[in-house]
């Protein structure tokens, strides 16, 4: 016999139970939403009137929507943190280069070096490290300073694909930095006026004698004679550019960090070289290139590459060109002779009737400079007239440790001003140069011309595993007057 009893399907029973539970949850949610909407409607009238419209969005929504928000004040912003702001720039690149006090010129010089490894064939490229590339882009493109690009230089587009390429072709900021540092280190270089030269040889007009002012009668007749004319004398000085160079060899064993480490060293050495050799050429210059006679090498033939062969300088004027402007001291310095040397800077005549030359290069004390060798400088510093407070006041050497001025004239002793022999010229054997020397001149009586600024190149020398650093400049120097300098030589020190 078959049992026909009906058995309930468990799946159907589970489904029914779930539907019942969900219906209960839905009912609870509806009741909750209704209660929440009632509560909101009761509280809205009590909300402060601030110009904002509030509402509910229906029974199925459990949040408020702000339909018309009142304007809110923007938070105070620090503009320095915005793009281009000073603090933003500093925060974005403060790294080891800031710690090393790198300048924009440093990045350009380093770029020249890195770029040299890219141009040389069969040479492994030295890739700039990422932090260098970021700092380089910041200093050359993000600081707001205009790029100083030489005329005729190629410029590559700088983007992510070109990062690192063209580093050596961008900018010439290092030039102005080197010049500024060199002028800061040498008073003579900083004081001599400089003009740009548009040609290798440039003529500078200079003043001559004054046109004479004449006493004449009034012309009243129609046929009166013309007045006597006065000539206005004029002259000119010639600036001829001469080429100077620095050639330095560096080991080929270069890598990322070694370049970064010695770049400031390179810049410092270039600054020191400019601050020494260029003013030395202006001060010691003598174009005499023979076995004897040059004031810097009186008993030998100087090498053709010596910097002092470029032009006749300040010391040459009173030692050779106008020997009457010099004084053979033949003993210890007599301070009165410094005043006499200043008197020689006046080229005005003592005959009012005949001489109309108006030049007095010794009148303005602020334009005068006194250059001496170091031993003579120390001797002057120890002189009783300048050493003690009772004689020289608060500027006395015993207080300042230096001799800044003599009779109001600025005094300094650069390394290129050396002792000489008794005739005022230097011998080849250093031990023969035992006599002190003083040069007094008016800085406005001389002028420097600049035909070309600084050009720097860095390239690999094939077959030597070396790199060559090259620096070039074209400079000129001349005087444009008579009586612009005087000197004292053969000083016992």
Give the SSE layout:
Blueprint: H1 10-43, E1 54-55, E2 65-66, H2 86-93, H3 96-99, H4 104-119, H5 130-142, H6 173-185, H7 187-191, E3 193-196, E4 201-207, E5 234-240, E6 242-251, H8 256-284, H9 314-321, E7 326-331, H10 335-343, E8 368-372, H11 374-381, H12 384-387, H13 389-392, H14 397-400, E9 405-406, E10 409-412, E11 435-442, E12 446-461, E13 466-479, E14 485-492
Parallel strand pairs: 3-12, 7-14, 8-10
Antiparallel strand pairs: 1-2, 4-5, 6-13, 8-11, 9-10, 11-14, 12-13
Helix pairs in contact: 4-5, 4-6, 4-8, 6-8
Note the run of SSEs as H and E.
Answer: HEEHHHHHHEEEEHHEHEHHHHEEEEEE
Instruction: Catalogue the unreliable spans.
Output: 54-68, 86-93, 146-170, 397-401
State the share of residues found in helices, binned by percent: 25-40%
CATH third-level topology of the largest domain: phage-related protein like fold
Largest sheet: 6 strands, mixed
Number of domains: 2
Overall structural class, as computed from helix and strand content, comes to: alpha+beta
Q: Number of helical runs?
A: 14
- Give the overall pLDDT as a whole number: 76
Distance between the termini: 148 Å
The number of strands is 14
Gross CATH architecture of the largest domain: Alpha-Beta Complex
Characterise the protein shown here.
- It is a single chain.
- The chain has 493 residues and is α+β, with helices and mostly antiparallel strands.
- It folds into two domains: 81-171, no CATH class; 187-210 and 235-492, phage-related protein like fold.
- The chain is built from 14 helices and 14 strands.
- The chain has helices at residues 10-43, 86-93, 96-99, 104-119, 130-142, 173-185, 187-191, 256-284, 314-321, 335-343, 374-381, 384-387, 389-392, 397-400, and strands at 54-55, 65-66, 193-196, 201-207, 234-240, 242-251, 326-331, 368-372, 405-406, 409-412, 435-442, 446-461, 466-479, 485-492.
- The strands form four sheets. Strands 7-14-11-8-10-9 form a six-stranded mixed sheet, sandwiched between helices. The protein has a four-stranded mixed sheet with strand order 3-12-13-6.
- α4 crosses α8 (256-284).
- It is elongated, with a radius of gyration of 41 Å.
- The model is unreliable at 54-68, 86-93, 146-170 and 397-401 (pLDDT under 50).
């Amino acid at each position: 016999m078959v049992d026909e009893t009906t058995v309930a399907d468990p799946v159907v029973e589970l489904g029914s139970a779930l539907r019942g539970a969900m219906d209960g949850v839905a009912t609870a949610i509806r009741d909750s939403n209704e209660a929440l909407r009632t509560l909101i409607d009761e509280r809205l009238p009590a909300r402060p009137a601030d110009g904002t419209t509030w509402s509910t969005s229906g029974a199925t929504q459990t949040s408020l929507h702000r339909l018309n928000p009142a304007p809110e004040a923007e938070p105070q912003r620090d503009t320095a943190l915005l793009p281009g702001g000073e603090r933003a720039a500093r925060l974005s690149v403060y790294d080891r280069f800031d710690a090393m006090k790198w300048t924009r010129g440093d990045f350009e010089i380093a770029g020249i070096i890195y770029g040299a490894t890219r141009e040389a064939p069969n040479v492994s490229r030295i890739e700039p490290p990422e932090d260098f590339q970021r700092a380089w882009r910041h200093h050359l493109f993000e600081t707001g300073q205009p790029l100083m690009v030489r005329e005729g230089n190629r410029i590559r587009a700088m983007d992510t694909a070109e990062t690192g390429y063209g580093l050596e072709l961008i900018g010439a900021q290092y030039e102005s930095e080197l010049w500024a540092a060199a002028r800061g280190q040498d008073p003579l270089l900083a004081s001599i006026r400089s003009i740009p030269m548009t040609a290798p040889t440039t003529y500078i007009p200079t003043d001559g004698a004054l046109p004479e002012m004449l006493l004449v009668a009034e012309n009243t007749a129609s046929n009166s004679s013309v007045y006597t004319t006065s000539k206005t004398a004029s002259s000119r000085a010639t600036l001829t550019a001469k080429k100077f160079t620095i050639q330095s060899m560096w080991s080929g064993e270069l890598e990322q960090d070694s370049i970064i480490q010695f770049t400031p060293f390179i810049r410092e050495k270039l600054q020191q070289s400019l601050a020494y050799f260029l003013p030395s050429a202006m001060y010691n210059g003598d174009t005499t290139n023979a076995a004897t006679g040059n004031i810097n090498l009186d008993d030998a033939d100087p090498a053709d590459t010596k910097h002092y062969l470029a032009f006749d300088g300040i010391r040459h004027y009173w030692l050779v060109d106008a020997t009457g402007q010099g004084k053979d001291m033949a003993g210890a310095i007599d301070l009165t002779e410094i005043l006499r040397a200043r008197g020689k800077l006046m080229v005005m005549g003592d005959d009012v009737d005949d001489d109309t030359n108006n030049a007095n290069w010794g009148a303005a004390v602020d334009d005068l400079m006194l250059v001496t060798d170091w031993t003579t400088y120390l001797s002057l510093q120890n002189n009783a007239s300048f050493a003690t407070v009772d004689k020289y006041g608060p500027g006395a050497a015993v207080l300042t440790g230096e001799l800044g001025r003599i009779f109001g004239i600025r005094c300094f002793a650069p390394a290129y001003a050396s002792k000489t022999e008794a005739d005022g010229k230097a011998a080849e054997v250093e031990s023969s140069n035992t006599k002190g020397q003083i040069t007094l001149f008016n800085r406005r009586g001389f002028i420097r011309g600049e035909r070309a600024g600084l050009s720097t190149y860095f390239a690999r020398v094939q077959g030597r595993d070396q790199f060559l650093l090259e620096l070039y400049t074209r400079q000129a120097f001349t005087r444009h007057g008579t009586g612009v300098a005087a000197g004292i030589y053969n000083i016992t020190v």
